[in-house]
Design goal:
The protein is α+β, with helices and mostly antiparallel strands. The chain has helices at residues 3-6, 85-90, 99-103, 125-128, 132-138, 159-168, 219-230, and strands spanning 19-20, 23-24, 27-28, 79-80, 97-98, 112-119, 142-150, 177-181, 195-196, 198-203, 208-213. 21% of the residues lie in helices and 20% in strands.
Length: 234
């Protein structure tokens, strides 16, 4: 099933109100779920020689392998290009950030990363993300990483659309919010369900995935999910 067709499908609630797509040939909307084991696994829709290999690791730089895409596994270190102004100010001269840059934020008192994967066509996402600016202010010890995976037509989002999505919520000046796309299908591999929005909580002390949530459709539900995840971090 291609992206143009799947955008026409009905969106229905699953696992706490999420928008779900149907599988095609063992692949769900171009995703492989959290069963993939490590960085040496070829990424969806890419050749085997395109897998990402981190340059280095250490307790001060970024946790060393083994890494994986499942719960209680260490998230790998790979690059992304932020599109919102605050996050771009944190990037290098090429406009790039790495997961190890977020890991370094533990020195600033950050305890957790909340990874959220969204899509422009997803109606449930439009219930969750209007509350993000308020949530980011309420939880300064959390870094919020927003992955705009697909546009309104169900096509893979480029950076330009990710910026449009971010601007729709006025995230440019919000501290602790990082917005990007997923052109290499790096982040979507962490989705353990084929549903948007997808939320994962990562302990910043060791970059381990500690829990998952689906659509957080009110400020209270959003806040409760973060507090529950924070209770699990070291």
């Amino acid at each position: 099933m291609n992206f143009r067709l799947f955008a026409l499908l009905a969106c229905f609630p699953v696992l706490m109100f999420s928008c779900q797509d149907e599988p095609a040939n063992g692949d769900v909307a171009g995703l492989h779920t959290a069963s993939l084991p490590a960085v040496t696994t070829p990424y969806p829709r890419q050749a085997p020689d395109s897998a990402w290999t981190p340059e280095r690791c250490s307790i001060d730089w970024y946790p060393c392998p083994p890494v994986g895409t499942g719960r209680y596994q260490t998230m790998e270190d790979f690059p992304f290009f932020p599109v919102n102004d605050w996050a771009k100010d944190q990037a290098d001269e090429q406009g790039m950030l790495y997961m190890h840059d977020l890991y370094q934020m533990r020195a600033e008192g950050k305890k957790m990363i909340m990874l959220s994967v969204t899509a422009g066509w997803c109606s449930v996402c439009r219930s969750q993300f209007p509350n993000l600016s308020t949530i980011a202010t309420m939880y300064p010890d959390v870094a919020f990483l927003i992955i705009v995976a697909q546009d309104t037509a169900g096509e893979a989002s480029d950076l330009a659309y990710a910026k449009v999505y971010s601007d729709g919520y006025n995230w440019d000046d919000d501290a602790n919010i990082f917005v990007t796309n997923d052109s290499n299908f790096l982040f979507e591999r962490y989705m353990n369900i084929a549903a948007y929005p997808f939320n994962a909580f990562i302990d910043i002390s060791n970059m381990e995935i500690i829990s998952y949530e689906s659509g957080l459709t009110s400020l209270t539900i959003y806040s409760d999910a973060i507090q529950s995840a924070l209770s699990k971090v070291k």
